[in-house]
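Q: What would this chain look like folded?
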Amino acid sequence: MLNYEHDIITPFKFQSLLLKRAKAANKTVVLPESDDERILKAAHIVLEKGAANIILLGLESEISKKAATLGLNLSKAKVLNPAQNELTDEFAKKIYELRKHKGVDEAKANALAKDKIYFATMLIHEGIADALVSGATMSTADTIRPALQIIKTKPNVSVVSGAFFMALEEEILLFADCAVTPNPSSDELASITLSSAQTASAFGLSPKIAMLSYSTADSGSGADVEFVKEAAKKASELGANLKIAAPIQFDAAVDLSVASKKMPNSDVAGQANVFIFPNLNCGNICYKAVQRSANALAVGPILQGLKKPVNDLSRGCLVEDVVNTILISAIQAGE
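A: My prediction, written as structure tokens:
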């Protein structure tokens, strides 16, 4: 278990801890986008460090040729071609059984089984791989859709959400939802809060949750404030032992001196480490602002709420981002 509660954790140390934890998990991560050199470079790094086993999807001859051109060693990676593989027919039959109630016929199921993201999702579903990382060349929706259809969400989870670990100079914070759900209902925001608490706990944070608003306690009023209050109430019902401050402004969530004035009786205010934003607009803007202005390492998005780890990459991701997401996914699979 990683533990950040009493130690100074720099971005470099955070990455080192992720590497150590991923090695211990010894899981297999499937990467369907072998046509992107960032994916191949990340696979090389992960394999070289022994952090995870890798499955690449595509033609082995093309992958080998590109690896040689880039000076990469991918000899330890397993390569599968969805278009021509002994698993494809089996996957087609299972996709048909899983999706026929939604109008998917056998011909459609056969086509889906040959699609790289559906094939990768079936590898997860069947336990051949433990986690999936995708999104360098496709949209978040393309990555998530097969997972929602086949892997599905955990019990008591109404919505998938995307969290980021924000590694600042000396501490680690979790921000959510910054990637998936534009305008969650109060029930969905409560579910996102519970998922975020579980993610924080899995990675060594004892979650102290700030559900953010333009109001702290009763300092402000309005529909948006009432929305956060309602979501906080529902989150507490989902997780009776959650430590939540809501509604709360960001300054009162992170600064003890401000918290002592605005929310003096809270055991979260002034020391929050999990931040729940009321909508995707707020969450995405804030994580990017902190990432750029504070030179923070943003690790994610980590998709929360699915039964098995499927994580999305930004199409503008760097090789380092891909490596970190593979490590996170391997660790999630080991939980």
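The longest strand covers residues 297-304.
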